[in-house]
């Protein structure tokens, strides 16, 4: 297994930061776009896709700003994924800033996965 590299992608989303935060931080919000179903017990979030479960630990969060998770199987390698809400001071445009880790040969695939997921999120939010 190679070393994972951090990558970041930004998506402009037409939504209020408060509404967007609900979709990135709560099991019900995440299950609308990120996974088929999401359950949580405290800091532990269980993401379900096509019957397969992946468990992530909520590492950090700040209301209306960001959430950071680490997949259970990656807890020891320092990798995480973070969804941060950025509001432009001048235009008031809202962006979702994704930080994640992937191995070099999986980078394009990982970015494409986020693009698809965030595309679903935009649909749910009625954003373009």
From TrEMBL:
InterPro entries: START-like_dom_sf (IPR023393), START_2 (IPR045736). It holds the Pfam family START_2. Gene3D superfamilies: 3.30.530.20. Residues 1-126 form the START-like domain. This is SRPBCC domain-containing protein.
